[in-house]
């Protein structure tokens, strides 16, 4: 009897230690964890998450023919739940035959111009954001898995340089806020770790869906730095590094944020 109790006690200790080790292995926090319960419930409930309206629109656009070729996304890619599963976890990436990485919206526009013979959709365009949200939604719950290789690694290093470089009139870097001071409060709001786990996201501040580029541009304006144009390559390089920081974290698209 004593031996059984001892064995049972050791098993409990081992289980508790293992659970603690697993919990402590990754202390990174998604912006979801910094939100209050009400906003978390809004994101979790697809009938309450306003980002799902854009996902639904994206599903309609996926099946709608466009351009001189009169092709839809579905004509080439079939059912998105099958063909697009995991795709968003791997972007930005270098398309076949290209010499530089593109983000997911860039890849969607490449498909439009090359395969559908349609016009590019401009940054922050509702249809582009909806298609991006629809594609990314197919990977919700999957771990972020950035690509590697000599060329993409060089662009990621450029992104890390941008992340750590002080700039603007406030002489701040991304790292000062999101590494050194993450978890603290600024104007009553928790400073997040800046993991891009849910883009495109629905921000209550915007009352709309928006891209990571829009959020990064907001940060540049906030530190009184010169904001890049929305088609600047610096955004893609920075996103590559941010996705590396978030490697293994689960995609949440469409996320909700304050």
Please outline what is shown here.
The protein has 258 residues and is mainly α.
Sheet with the most strands: spatial strand order: 4-3-5
Most strands sheet: 3 strands, mixed
Order of helices and strands: HHHHHHHHHEEEEHHE
Which structural class is indicated by helix and strand composition? mainly alpha
Uncertain residue segments:
5-23
Q: Radius of gyration, Cα only, in angstroms?
A: 21 Å
| Count of strand segments | 5
Distance between the termini: 56 Å
Helix % is 40-55%
Strand percentage lies at under 5%
Give the CA-based shape: globular
Describe the fold and architecture.
The longest helix has 24 residues, at 2-25. The protein folds into two domains: 31-43 and 143-257, Cytochrome c-like domain (Cytochrome Bc1 Complex, Chain D, domain 2); 51-137, Cytochrome Bc1 Complex, Chain D, domain 2 (Orthogonal Bundle). The chain starts with a helix and ends with a strand. It is 48% helix and 5% strand. The chain has 258 residues and is mainly alpha-helical.
